[in-house]
Amino acid sequence: MSDPTEANGTAGAGEVAEPAPPAGAGERRVRVVLVDDHRMFRTGVQAEIGQTAVTGVEVVGEAADVDQAVTVITATRPEVVLLDVHLPGGGGVEVLRRCAPLMGDAERPVRFLALSVSDAAEDVIGVIRGGARGYVTKTITGTDLVDSVFRVQEGDAVFSPRLAGFVLDAFASTDAPPVDEDLDRLTQREREVLRLIARGYAYKEIAKQLYISVKTVESHVSAVLRKLQLSNRHELTRWATARRLV
Fold first, then answer.
1. What is the pLDDT of residues 150-185, one digit of tens each?
2. Average pLDDT for the chain
3. What local confidence, expressed as pLDDT, does residue 237 receive?
4. Percent of the chain residues past pLDDT 70, beyond the cut
């Protein structure tokens, strides 16, 4: 069976599709790059929204990690990037940091919409601080996602209803907590492992949930303990609970 991304001309992860001809005058069109480390999810999103003639969304590239994302985004200069929060190589925040000049381009800004399974406040606030224009969870329907993409293209801020409260608490409230420097030392993936450890998950359970090996989980836990100067998972759990990360 042929690859569905090849059938409609969409590039695979780390690759760039051939430029499409310009849309007709007045036609609603947006060029998008998908960034997610799960190929099956990228394929599903492509099938759901990437029917250019129907939705007006043209998927011009895909990426599975931070380095691929920066390369593809720089090469294609899409109007909107659908960005997962947890990625190999430093997470969505690192992509935003490295693409900051493209976001600041007054004539052709590249705008980012986070699309993640996570609804944790620190993930939402982290990518918004990094420059994303919105954050929606992967429970969103295809129709709503297409609408969100166009709204972000037009400069609007878009959030799943529950997540908007996190942003208001962090940026609008005068008594919002300051940036947690200890937490900021951790990568997005390390934060996710930290949260699951604090909830009492075993290493094997974490590996299964995050689609990584047990050895990788162990490496992340070691890195978290080292960065936070903690000795064991019990101290780690207390640290996370005190910050209401559980």
1. 999 998 889 887 777 666 665 555 444 455 677 778
2. 82
3. 86
4. 82
- β strands within the chain, DSSP E: 30-35, 57-63, 80-83, 111-116, 134-137, 158-159
The length of the chain, given as a count of residues:
246
Angle, to 10 degrees, between the axis of helix 214-228 and the axis of helix 233-242? Answer: 70
Is residue 82 predicted with pLDDT exceeding 50? yes
CATH number of 181-242: 1.10.10.10
Q: Are strands 80-83 and 57-63 parallel, antiparallel or unpaired?
A: unpaired
Return the CATH number of the domain spanning residue range 4-171: 3.40.50.2300
Three-state SS string over 192-237 comes to HHHHHHHCCCCHHHHHHHHCCCHHHHHHHHHHHHHHHCCCCHHHHH
Range list for CATH 1.10.10.10 in the chain: 181-242
For the chain, the distance separating the N- and C-terminal CA atoms, rounded to the nearest angstrom, is 44
pLDDT at 198: 86
Quote the CA–CA distance of 57 and 119 in Å, as a whole number. Answer: 25
Domain with CATH 3.40.50.2300 in the chain: 4-171
